[in-house]
Specification:
74% helix; 6 helices; mainly alpha; 137 residues; elongated
Length: 137
């Protein structure tokens, strides 16, 4: 029955299932990078920042980012990119602290905190995606 009234908002807000799966793949690649860091001689931070799975996820993110405009997936794409680039920033700052003897303990604490933060952001983001909730940054 069409009386000229607008369609329900829920119908307009349907998710593109291909993009949803794509976003799950990006979370999986970042998680694989963390798993590589846990199970090998690499560190979690080093693996997250410099391993092939994580870099592929970042490239994937930039390639399809424009397709998510206006959807809840846009917040997940932004969440993942910010996680990656802030991890790069804080890792670089921690290594700068290591240039001094006094800064080594602070740098080690910072790297431990960064490791926990990376894992937290991946878990929180992926769980929100599973529940089809946006990420508020």
């Amino acid at each position: 029955m069409s009386d000229g009234s607008p369609q329900p908002l829920a119908a307009a807000a349907t998710l593109d299932q291909a993009l949803l799966g794509y976003t799950h793949v990006m979370y999986a690649l970042h998680s694989l990078a963390v798993l590589i860091g846990i199970t090998t001689f690499h560190t979690i931070i080093g693996s997250f920042i410099g391993s092939l799975p994580s870099i592929v996820a970042v490239v994937m993110n930039y390639v399809r980012r424009s397709a998510t405009r206006g959807t809840l997936l846009e917040s997940h794409f932004r969440w993942q990119l910010r996680t990656f680039w802030f991890a790069v920033l804080w890792a670089c700052l921690s290594f700068l602290f290591m240039a001094t003897i006094i800064g080594i303990p602070a740098a080690l604490v910072g790297l431990l905190a960064l490791t926990i933060w990376i894992i937290y952001r991946l878990v929180r983001g992926w769980l929100a995606l599973r529940d089809k909730r946006p990420m508020y940054v």
